Amino acid sequence: MFALTAAVSAAPAQPAAVPTPASILGWEPGTDRKLPSWKQVTDYFAALDAASPHVQVRTLGRTTLGRPFIVAFISDSANLANLEHFRGIQQQLLDPRKRGSATRESLLSDGRNIVLITSSIHSTEVGGFLSPLVIADRLVRSDTPEAREILKETIIMLVPSQNPDGVDIVGDWYRSTIGTPAEGTPPPEIYHRYTGHDNNRDWYAFTQVEQRMVLDSLYAPWTPAIVNDIHQQGANGGRIFIPPYMDPVEPNIDPVLTISTNALGMAMGWRMIAEGKTGIATNASYDQWSPARQYSLNHHGVRILTETASARLASPIEVPFAQLGTARGYDARVSSWNFPARWPGGTWGIGDIVAYQASASWAMLASVARDRRQWLESYMTVADRAMAADHPWTSSAVPSAYVIPRDQKDPQAVQRLVWTLQHGQVEVYESVPAGSYVVPTLQPFGSYAKALLERQQYPNLSEYPGGPPKRPYDVTAHTLPLLFGVQVDAVTGAAPAMGGLTPAVAEPRFTVAGLSGKSPKRIAIYRSYGASMDEGWTRWLFDVNRIPYRTVLDADMRAGNLKSRFDVIILPDQSPSQLRRGLGAPYPDSLRGGLGEAGAASLKAFVEAGGTLITFNDASEYAVDVLELPVRNVLTGVPSTAFYAPGSLMAVTLDRAHPIASRMTAPVPAAWFEDSPTFEITDATRAVAVASYAATGDPLLSGWLLGGSRLNGRAALVDVTLGKGHAILFGFRPQYRGQSMNTQPLIWGAILR
Ligand SMILES: [Zn+2]
Q1: How far does residue 189's CA lie from ligand 1's centre (Å)?
Q2: Cα separation values, 120 from 28, 124, 295, 305, Å
Q3: What separation in Å is there between the alpha carbon of 285 and the centre of ligand 1?
Q4: Does the chain have fewer CB atoms within 10 Å around its N or its C terminus?
Q5: Burial letters for 103-122: b for 16+ Cβ neighbours within 10 Å, e otherwise?
């Protein structure tokens, strides 16, 4: 609380009055089989705020399911009393245009390191529920010279959970299963209402309220120079990953940020190994490609991802040394330059996870506090380089600007594109004469705008010369004009004439003609207990467009008689085996079995009776199989050396006379292809291709594709007649992570067919 902080700032801290985490939780953080509720976490931070002059807690808003979303500002009380002053310095460091009369020297001597620590965005990574409490406690109560130096030199924004809803979704499930065979299993639902694990892939699209709160209240006003994101990985590799990342790097990121991320990660590992920690891996597993996961590296901040080995939620496991295996970039049984200290194996539990996470964050804070001036200089240098005339590090030519004509076929898509850029701190200007938006690349985050507006050329990486392709950590394309279906023109040479800055555009209120508000079709979306993120994204799409639907579970599907209840059933992207079998042991019987034989028979009867079954991506293979459709996936059994497309945008040709395609407006129709099926129609009297790949040429628009000729002449979207009904098979993800809105009209066309 601000007044209290100011009043006591002259007096020394009173450690006895500051609560420990255990005094609020009733147990020490890191105790086996103990996870906090979100209320306990917020109670702790509220108590800390009330008792410590070094802590100021703010509620940024409400989560998707209505929980308070909080941040704790932690710093020396003198810094906390002058946050706006330090934010002003940060803004001047960030943008040479705002420096006015301030000298470089005065900014460097007066500024503070602005550090954002975010935790537990992934809710099965449960150490992240507790480590923020341990870090805060150590900062506030330890009163060592090092702790005082961190508080003096640093303003820390600590977000104890980026997904508070998931703290309770996973925590409640875990507590209900302790002592049962299902103890330690993930919950039978996604742990964010709409996104599940994809919630950390939303850092340029900003579809979810949790991302927007962090963006609008922390990233945009503060633009932190250092970000620490706390995660967990699998159990059988290293004990913790710390940057440097693996290749590739996104080519628009300033190499000063890459090398300083590397340096800070190495400093952290150095200290942790000296402390006696082992199993520390660098240059492994995680790459530096997609802006979807790394907002800060695209906004002048280093990004320290830590990934600590998991247990079974808060239940300990035994990991014998012989069970340790190879990860990408090292072998956990062999010492190497990027894995210098082997972990001997043994018991691993929540206490170890919390200890590693807290140790890593402390090592980071101590390092940046000691070198505060160097970090500020680096931040200022990156800012100056962004505003220089050329960016020699990029691998593609830098246009002077991108122009977005206002008058396009889909005004919602244009509005969404401008809103998305502006939300990512990109300056958008009016054209002269009026009629277009202009995005100059010469602006603080011009490189970020370029990354999102250009087409990606993902490097051809292989595991070894002549070997299979090296799997990217995530997907390979992020071209917003293709995803959204908007015409954007790159301008080379002199920048076009520009008028004033475009005021912040409103987020479009999405509307689908004939479906929003009231649907003539009774729509069902299938939800598996083997939680599918795509099912969540499908519901998100329907909710933002206000299209009514019902969720159907295994029991509904197996019970049959579906046609009496629904006109349209959607199977979101999920593997055929998961759809067929669902969960098994050790889950309770009521959650097991998937669609099974009965569900498959019900679906077939539904279509034959006149229903429309719509399947996305891998679920299409399930439909081909159980409905015995006259369609074959030509990529079945093809090795990755012969064909590979792990998340790319492909050009498709539409049959515009077909009712399913009639609503498409994208200037360049682009299908989101992610390990997708591709179809050959084996009986043309019963099936037609609505979208196809061209007969010749490379179908790749953005990302990475090997063996593209295998797609030539094949179908990407098929409408199959079965009995009185239809099965409409998407060989791509038409609503990928809420982003591929250019192909969403195909979903509406399929529903209204
Ligand atoms: Zn994670």
Answers
A1: 17
A2: 18, 8, 17, 12
A3: 13
A4: N
A5: eeeebbeebbbbbbbbbbbb
Question: Mean pLDDT across the stretch 494-499?
Answer: 95
State the residue for tokens 């299963």: 177
Distance 687 CA to ligand 1 centre (A): 42
Whether pLDDT at 39 is above 50? yes
Distance between Cα 264 and ligand 1 center (Å): 20
Rounded distance from Cα 192 to ligand 1 centre (Å):
13
> Among candidates 687, 686, 689, which has minimal Cα distance to 714?
689
Distance 701 CA to ligand 1 centre (A): 29
Mean pLDDT (the chain, rounded) = 96
Alpha carbon of 200 to ligand 1 centroid (Å): 8
Q: How far apart are CA 67 and CA 41, in angstroms?
A: 12
For 325, the 3-state DSSP assignment is coil
Please answer whether residues 219 and 295 qualify as being in contact, where contact means their C-beta atoms are separated by less than 8 angstroms.
yes
Checking if the pLDDT of 120 tops 90, the result is: yes
Chain centroid to CA 582: 25
Compute the distance from residue 622 Cα to the ligand 1 centre, in Å.
29
29, 133 in Cβ contact below 8 A? yes
* CA 232 to ligand 1 centroid distance, Å: 5
Bond preceding residue 244 cis, omega within 30 of 0? yes
Ligand 1: centre distance to CA 213 (Å): 19
Residue 4 pLDDT level (bands cut at 50, 70, 90): very low
Distance 529 CA to ligand 1 centre (A): 21
Q: How far is the CA of 469 from the centre of ligand 1 (A)?
A: 24
Strands 700-702 and 568-571, how do they pair? unpaired
Gap from CA of 125 to ligand 1 centroid (Å): 6
Separation of CA 136 and ligand 1 centre (Å): 21
**Contact call for residues 245 and 266 (beta carbons, < 8 A):** no
Residue 701's identity, in one-letter code, is L
Q: How confident is the model at residue 128 (pLDDT cuts 50, 70, 90)?
A: very high
User: β-strand 68-74 against 226-233: which pairing, if any?
Assistant: unpaired
Are the C-beta atoms of 506 and 535 separated by less than 8 Å? no
Using the Cα atoms of residue 662, residue 664, residue 670 and residue 673 in order, give the sign of their dihedral.
negative
pLDDT at 5 over 50: no
Write the DSSP symbol of residue 696: S
From the CA of 167, how far away is ligand 1's center (Å)?
A: 13
CA of 164 to the centre of ligand 1 (A): 14
231 CA to centre of ligand 1 in angstroms: 4
pLDDT in tens, 160-217: 999 999 999 999 999 999 999 999 999 999 999 999 999 999 999 999 999 999 999 9
Question: What pLDDT, on the 0 to 100 scale, is given for residue 248?
Answer: 96
Quote the pLDDT of residue 9. Answer: 44
Q: Is 58 within 8 Å of 180 (Cβ atoms)?
A: no
Is the distance from CB of 488 to CB of 404 less than 8 angstroms? yes
Distance 72 CA to ligand 1 centre (A): 21
The rounded Å distance from CA 504 to ligand 1 centre is: 32
- CA 403 to ligand 1 center in whole angstroms: 36
pLDDT tens per residue across span 243-275: 999 999 999 999 999 999 999 999 999 999 999
pTM of the model: 0.96
**Residue 712 alpha carbon to ligand 1 centre in Å:** 37
Structure tokens, 95? 């943008």
Task: Give the span between the Cα atoms of 742 and 264, in whole angstroms.
Answer: 40
